[in-house]
Design a protein that fits this description.
CATH topology: Maf protein
Structural class: alpha/beta
GO molecular function, one term: hydrolase activity
Strand content: 15-25%
CATH class: Alpha Beta
Pfam families: CinA
Order of helices and strands: HHEHEHHHEEEH
CATH architecture: Alpha-Beta Complex
Protein name: Nicotinamide-nucleotide amidohydrolase family protein
Number of helices: 7
Organism: Miniimonas arenae
Keywords: Hydrolase
Number of strands: 5
Strand order of the largest sheet: 2-1-3-4-5
Oligomer: single chain
Length: 171
């Protein structure tokens, strides 16, 4: 017998987080749209937003820019910045968020970059997470050093990115 969508134990696992609900509501109130640029979270932030009913009214899309050349070529992160500082910096995260806004014609950009492991990358330790949110009249960047295994680090980074957006948008 086939199960019905939304029934069973899997339905609660797909529920939207309270922070994501507040972000979508705040965007709707302002008639703003959002674009997401993700590296280490590889779509988890976008997924968190689309779990909210009505997210299609505000979410323009997301770009998974895992490789440095994608950050540069698709999102417009300055190549000299990446060459000088690497990809796990606040400057790169902000440039990713701005690039997502420009590419997808959005008012707000959310970006994630960091190292999920299992080891360091380019001298940056595992668990380093850099997040940025840009919006028409501001920007915010946060850096965390998290502990845990790769799946937990990625999930925590996505949750922190949504929480940062919630905080700055006053969801």
């Amino acid at each position: 017998m086939a199960s019905r969508a939304g029934s069973g134990s899997g339905a609660s696992a797909l529920a939207a987080s309270p922070a994501a609900v507040r972000v979508v509501a705040a965007l709707r109130r302002r008639s703003w749209t959002v674009a997401v640029a993700e590296s280490l979270t590889a779509g988890l932030v976008t997924d968190a937003l689309v779990r909210v009913p009505g997210a299609s009214a505000v979410l323009r899309g997301g770009v998974t820019a895992y490789a440095a050349d994608v950050k540069v070529g698709v999102l417009g992160v300055p190549g000299d910045l990446v060459a000088r500082d690497g990809v796990v910096t606040g400057h790169v995260a902000r440039a990713m968020a701005r690039g997502a806004c420009a590419l997808l014609h959005a008012d707000v950009g959310i970006a994630t970059t960091g190292v999920a492991g299992p080891g360091p990358a380019d001298g940056v330790p595992t668990g380093t997470v850099v997040l940025a949110v840009v919006w028409p009249d501001g920007e915010a960047t946060r850096t965390w050093r998290l502990a845990g295994l790769r799946p937990a680090l990625r999930a925590s980074a996505a949750s922190l990115a949504v929480a940062l957006a919630d905080g700055v948008l006053g969801g």
